[in-house]
Amino acid sequence: MGCWHDLVCDDWRPKLLMPINRKIMGVKRGNQRAIFGYGVGTTLFYSTTNLVSSTGVMSYDTTGVGTARYALAAASYGTNKAIFGYGDGGSGVSRTSLTNLVSSIGVVSSDTTGVGTARRELAAASYGTDKAIFGYGYDSGSFSITNLVSNTGVVSANTTGVGTARNGLAAASYGTDKAIFGYGITHVMAVSSLTNLVSNIGVVSSDVTGVGTARLQPAAASYGTDKAIFGYGTASFSTLVSLTNLVSSTGVVSSDTTGVGTARSGLAASSYGTDKVIFGYGYSGSYVSMTNLVSNSGVVASDVTGVGTGRSQIAASSYGS
């Protein structure tokens, strides 16, 4: 296992050209606000969060709650709440399965004892209008396992995975009640563009041949109430990109759209304002806090000067109807 997989190792800082995440993030129809949280930066690990208003304005740092960690995932559940889960607390070996619930007003709870396999570099999304799913990830090898989350925020035990095991992918909801996992890197170090659809009862489909540039550490979120967007990431292990791929209301991924904004990876994305998206944070040669807003027709805007501590391998979700 190379050091780039175990981000926090001796001499880890120079290797952050390829921070692993993924982020991702859940979305619910009707959710107005978003929350970005946790991550890795110049002073190692954070539990810091940043709230996003219904108009896409990012707040300054809120003192973190729970275990500081990175390479976790987040999604909304219960129509207006959110959950952060899993990740790595440091030293490259302390994978966790703990979770932190987020209330409908954006208050993060203390740690909840984890359920399922501890891992990092997984992704999460909402499905079935009020539930969530965590999927895939890494711990001494890639996984294709999933963990469903009830509409009260209870995480289930592992479900045997479907599709190619991988990590550093992203996920989003689409079609109002389904979800899609996409991109990432496999256990044989192959960067991927394949996707896996999730039904409205949380069943993951087999691999769908990928569309667009294969990459790891992109971010994804739902826009326009029933579509999704994947954006940014690292292609070929070293090339940061800003391109995007739109996902239709039936889960069909489009070819690459020329990117807007600073190329970076290890960022996160969430819906806000019921039908728009915000990409935020990441690593572009340094840790950044810049954001890019996405309209309800999937058009990405240029960079907005960041607010809060620049960091990577962060997670985000919508919340608050």
Written description of the protein model:
This protein is an all-beta fold. The protein is globular. Strands 9, 10, 11 and 12 form a 4-stranded antiparallel sheet that branches. Strand 6 (123-127) and strand 7 form a beta hairpin. The protein is built from no helices and 19 strands.
Let me know the CATH homologous superfamily: Kelch-type beta propeller
User: Low-confidence spans: pLDDT under 50, at least 5 residues?
Assistant: 1-28
State the CATH topology: Neuraminidase
Helix and strand content put the structural class at mainly beta
> What is the count of β-strands?
19
Q: Write the CATH architecture name.
A: 6 Propeller
Provide a concise account of the structure shown.
Residues 1-28 have low confidence and may be disordered.
Element layout with pairings:
Blueprint: E1 33-41, E2 44-52, E3 73-77, E4 81-88, E5 95-102, E6 123-127, E7 131-138, E8 142-149, E9 166-167, E10 170-174, E11 178-186, E12 191-198, E13 219-223, E14 227-235, E15 239-247, E16 268-272, E17 276-283, E18 287-294, E19 315-319
Antiparallel strand pairs: 1-2, 1-19, 3-4, 4-5, 6-7, 7-8, 9-11, 10-11, 11-12, 13-14, 14-15, 16-17, 17-18
List keywords for this structure.
321 residues; mainly beta; 4-stranded antiparallel β-sheet; 41% strand; disordered N terminus
